[in-house]
Description:
Blueprint: H1 2-6, H2 9-39, E1 41-47, E2 49-72, E3 77-82, E4 89-90, E5 95-99, H3 102-130, H4 136-161, E6 164-166, E7 171-173, E8 183-184, E9 189-206, E10 218-223, E11 231-243, E12 248-255, E13 267-283, E14 288-290, E15 293-299, E16 305-316, E17 319-324, E18 331-335, E19 346-349
Parallel strand pairs: 1-19
Antiparallel strand pairs: 1-18, 2-9, 2-13, 3-5, 3-8, 4-7, 5-6, 7-9, 9-12, 10-11, 10-13, 11-12, 13-17, 14-15, 15-16, 16-17
Helix pairs in contact: 3-4
Amino acid sequence: MAIRKLINPLTLFVAIFALAGAYFWFIHEPQQQQQQQQAAVPVRIQVAKMAEYRDVIEALGTAQANESIVVTAQAQEVVVAVHFDDGDMAEAGDLLVELDAREERARVQELKFRLAEAQRQYQRLLDLSRQNAASQQQLELQDVIVKETTAELAVAEVRLAQKQIIAPFDGRLGIRHVSVGSLVSPGQQITTLDDVAPIKLDFSVPELYFASLQTGQKITARSAAYPGEEFTGVIRSIDSRVDPLTRSILVRANIPNEDGKLRPGMLLRVNLLRSVDTTMILPEKAIVPMQDRHYVYVVGSDNIARQTEVVVGRRKPGIVEIVSGIKPGTRVVTEGMVRLRDGVAVNVREG
């Protein structure tokens, strides 16, 4: 009878409820936890930290010779001698090319004889005038003849000098375009002469960075002709005007170039260091832009991703400066953000 009293509808209901609770706790709950773990989004993270940020201005520049000329003739004449070869080094005053100057040389010789005779006559009349044997008018007339002949001789000597082409400064000669027997005309190119030590480097900088420029500032440059090699120089001058079309200013730097590796006309990539700061930086791919704001996904100790607004600063290819919004040591998602939403669980992967 006691057993029958214990087994009644109420006790049966309690027993069934207890069994259902046990089933839910021991069987259904682990399955739910497993499903939640399987639903976690796999991501990769990076710990935000302070690092050195080198603010560098990048530009493209063109190498220019320190001094450069196109060697030409000043008179039309036949070349009688060439005293250089392609690519030779020349010093100031070196004779490069001689033109036929027989007529000019004869003219100079003639005027020297005439001047000597005119001076002798002037001296004779001067002696006679002291003895009252020659008039002052005769003496003055002879003095005019001496001065006229002197002037004619100076002109003849200039014309004779034009038949010799001289190097005006030290430098490297280019390809020669004349040979002995060639007839050259005024302005015709004979060769080029370039002084390439130091070499000038001209490049344009946006006016935004104008306040960061100053003479004496160091620059580095690279050329595709010398992979991995860096050339160092200093800013020599800054143009007095900003180009109104490009809103940029022309800057000229000097690079020593004692070894002559750089040649006029070469294209160089220029780096100009503005400043070196210690700031917080993150990979650019960690930033999620939304309209005019920027966000990152921060992962806490519970492995839940939380969308956090940040203020970004300067940028360089691949990295961005974080001004505010997170602190050093914060774990930030860098990969796997496509499926992320605020509050979603994540599965952090190493590497």
